[in-house]
Amino acid sequence: MNRYTVFWLLILSLAGWLRFHDLDNRPVHADEATGARIVARALDGDYRFDPVHYHGPVFHRLGQWTSSLAGHHRWQEMEMLPLRQLTALAGLLTVALPLLGVRRFGQAPMLVSSLLLATSPLLVYYSRMFIHESLLALFGGLVLVQLASGRAYGAIGFWLGLMYATKETFVLTLAGWGIAAVLLWGLLGKSRPPVRDLFQKHRGDFMIGIVSFLAISLAFYTDGFRHWQGAIDAVRTYFIYDTTEGHDKAAWWYLDFLAWPLKSGGLWWWTGAPLILAILAAWKCRTRTVRFLALAILAQLAVYSAIAYKTPWLMVLPWAQVLLLAGFSLRIVPPGNSWRWGAACVLTTLVSWQTLQSWRSSFVYPSEARNRFAYVPTSPDMENLNGWLDQLAAAYPELPLSPIGIIGHGYWPLPWYLRQRGPVGHWDHPPASLARLPLVFSMVDLTAELAETHVPIPRGLRDGNPVMVWVRNDFWDASVAQPHP
């Protein structure tokens, strides 16, 4: 076993530990819960792609197969751990992608890229969540690997098709790559071949790529070519998609999030060091691959920044490309042991800092407001909810603690935590029978409706968003009368 094999095994082991260790240590995020609910519909056989919301079908189909393998076939049986293992695996495979570039680019740059991918707090944190971005980053990375090889157009089309069927933001990544290709074409000057000759030479390859793209994307959107409305909806989604309110931010928000240091809750957070290495690589390395990657990153950041809707996880794929580019900075290190030792010290410091931030964000403060990567996190109070409800039910065993009512909007991930508690009804406005329910979770003020029949108990739902739990008087009185140790 040579030293490079040892290095790769160590990097992948570290990446695996950061992504899989204690994977169920954080409360279920609202986006995870809604994704799991759609997986449950797929398990029930009634899933159809929704062009208005909830993104593409690949994520939910893979979640369906993962849950089935885990022996979970209904909403009430589902657990979050197998679903998170799916995205954690995608994150680990993304770390391994530079292995595919070793023959073309050499061991050292690819090892650095992989090490930065392995320890990135942004990538670690969101690969431990059941959301689309880890899959999108993996498929996008595979597209770049195939592009760098200059062949396998069928594979390029296949991975692009999976990106398209994973999330509609695929088009933003594709736009960035397209802009980069046009700019790079312009930079080639007289050395570029005529477009007509290029097309004639690769016409067959282009057709193979297009057929591959259409075949895999349509297979998912049409549910195995059975429901062709899905093919139409796959296009309609770009015109009718409805984003969730409350996520509009300034144009410079991503730059601030990725590059600017932040002190929060007594802790310093900064992820910008790899960006410096990426800039150095783009400045000094003039190969076509490095130029394309640098231009693509700039174009994607510009496109994403121009859109008002912004969340941290949308940067997972662009940031993965930054980390890939940063690995090429090793090529600008001058010869000589002193320079090499200096570069090793810089890299060790950077990786240690990234690992520390990954440990803090994913293991120490996974759902706290001080965590820079915890975006609208679920309150840890939700993890104790069912234990408290069990105590209420045990205090008054003569009657069931159901059905349960949820009133208002923005209540996710609450249905996930109530999935095993019998009938749960959701209403935008209070129904006439509300006072008869033993338990009501409310996102709106129900004092006028329930003050005489229920006792209000505030509980945490999401950061800055509490939920009021109205417990019917008979259950509450029985609970209060119970002896407490």
From TrEMBL:
Domain of life: Bacteria
Organism: Haloferula luteola
Keyword ATP-binding listed: no
Record PANTHER family: GLYCOSYL TRANSFERASE FAMILY 39_83 DOMAIN-CONTAINING PROTEIN, GLYCOSYL TRANSFERASE, FAMILY 39
Protein name, per record: Uncharacterized protein (TIGR03663 family)
UniProt KW keywords: Membrane, Transmembrane, Transmembrane helix
Ranges annotated as spanning the membrane: 6-21, 83-102, 108-126, 138-164, 170-188, 204-221, 267-283, 290-307
